[in-house]
């Protein structure tokens, strides 16, 4: 199966770090939208943290599953077995990075939330 | 007010689902665009032992080149060099050097870009010069390669790379036809 030239052309235009700019701006837009909807600047950490962990898990699953699947389907098994683990290494790294980022977001949310609750409690006790 | 809160929550969940789908897509695109860069292929080639891969296991990659299908990639590359008059130990030293793999990797990346409408790929003379004057290669050969030797490697490497990626400009009728593989092990 050959990838159409148009798709390769679009992908090569997206090269040079442009995709990362899209990812970051998309994240910022989603964060602002969710904070508007929930009227909280902390809650998006929870709403975006969970999907980020899920994306990380998905990327790791793709990495782990693709080698045995391609080995089952591929004709030239040896070359694929040799090249695929190296070729898919960035996928594993991105997956781990996403999981860590997601966990960090949720931990941050829990800490800020608890801190806020404590402060509110002490304020009500004072009044 | 409570209804508004519930609606806000529902939309927030909806947005996080959209975020999950779009983020997965963007991450996949980021990975695929990586495949279009020369650095990526260079790093893949650097981590692969060419002596364990047979030509017959490379799928269609070497179909156009007139090479022995039972030989390994390393043996084939050494034969490509020795055919052009380079000493065998020089050829082995070149193939063992990691920099040559970087050059080939960059060539493959450039070829993918070329297919997407970029410039025609070419292995640079300065890169070959850098590999052959590398202290490890010089030490393995026992002397600094002559300008003629560098020219030979440059022409042969470019010819072979183009034959592989372009499907053989002269359909395997080149003077390198039926390369005799030298078993190095």
Structural write-up:
The complex is a heterodimer of chains A (127) and B (185). Chain A is an all-alpha fold and 127 residues long. Helix content of chain A is 87%, strand content 0%. Chain A contains 5 helices and no strands. The longest helix of chain A has 38 residues, at 89-126. Chain A is elongated, with a radius of gyration of 21 Å. Helix content of chain B is 62%, strand content 0%.
Keywords:
heterodimer; A: 127 residues; mainly alpha; 0% strand; B: disordered C terminus
Q: Helix count of chain A?
A: 5
- Give the % helix of chain B: 55-70%
Question: What are the low-pLDDT stretches of chain A, counting only 5+ consecutive residues below 50?
Answer: none
Largest sheet of chain B: none
Portion in strands of chain A: under 5%
Helix content of chain A: over 70%
Structural class of chain B: mainly alpha
- Which structural category do the helix and sheet elements of chain A fall into? mainly alpha
- Uncertain segments of chain B of ≥5 residues (pLDDT<50)? 168-185
Strand content of chain B: under 5%
Mean pLDDT across all amino acids of chain B: 71
The description of the largest β-sheet of chain A is: none
Count of DSSP strands of chain B: 0
Radius of gyration of chain B: 23 Å
Mean pLDDT of chain A: 80
Q: Helix segment count of chain B?
A: 8
Number of strands of chain A: 0
Question: What is the topological layout?
Answer:
The complex is a heterodimer of chains A (127) and B (185).
Chain A: H1 5-14, H2 18-38, H3 43-73, H4 77-87, H5 89-126
Chain B: H1 2-34, H2 38-46, H3 73-83, H4 88-96, H5 98-115, H6 125-132, H7 135-141, H8 147-165
Helix pairs in contact in B: 2-5, 3-4, 4-7, 6-8
Q: Could you write a compact summary of the structure shown?
A:
The complex is a heterodimer of chains A (127) and B (185). By secondary structure, chain A is an all-alpha fold.
């Amino acid at each position: 199966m050959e990838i159409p030239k148009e798709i390769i052309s679009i992908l090569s235009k997206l090269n040079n770090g442009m995709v990362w700019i899209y990812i970051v701006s998309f994240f910022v837009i989603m964060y602002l939208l969710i904070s508007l909807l929930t009227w909280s600047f902390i809650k998006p950490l929870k709403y975006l943290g969970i999907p980020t962990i899920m994306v990380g898990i998905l990327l790791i699953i793709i990495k782990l599953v693709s080698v045995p699947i391609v080995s089952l389907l591929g004709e030239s098994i040896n070359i694929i077995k040799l090249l695929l683990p190296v070729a898919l290494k960035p996928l594993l790294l991105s997956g781990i990075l996403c999981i860590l980022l997601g966990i960090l977001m949720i931990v941050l949310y829990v800490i800020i939330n608890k801190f806020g609750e404590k402060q509110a409690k002490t304020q009500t006790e004072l009044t | 007010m409570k209804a508004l809160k519930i609606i806000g929550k529902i939309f927030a969940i909806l947005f996080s689902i959209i975020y999950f789908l779009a983020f997965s897509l963007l991450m996949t695109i980021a990975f695929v665009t990586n495949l279009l860069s020369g650095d990526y292929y260079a790093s893949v080639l650097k981590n692969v032992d060419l002596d364990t891969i047979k030509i017959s296991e490379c799928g269609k990659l070497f179909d156009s080149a007139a090479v022995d299908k039972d030989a390994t990639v390393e043996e084939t590359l050494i034969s490509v060099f020795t055919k052009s008059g380079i000493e065998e130990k020089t050829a082995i030293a070149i193939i063992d050097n990691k920099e040559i793999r970087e050059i080939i990797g960059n060539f493959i990346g450039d070829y993918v870009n070329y297919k997407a409408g970029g410039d025609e790929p070419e292995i640079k003379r300065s890169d070959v010069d850098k590999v052959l004057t590398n202290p490890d290669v010089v030490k393995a050969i026992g002397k600094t390669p002559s300008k003629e030797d560098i020219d030979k490697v440059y022409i042969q490497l470019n010819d072979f790379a183009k034959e592989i990626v372009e499907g053989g400009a002269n359909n395997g009728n080149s003077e390198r036809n039926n390369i005799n593989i030298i078993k190095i092990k």
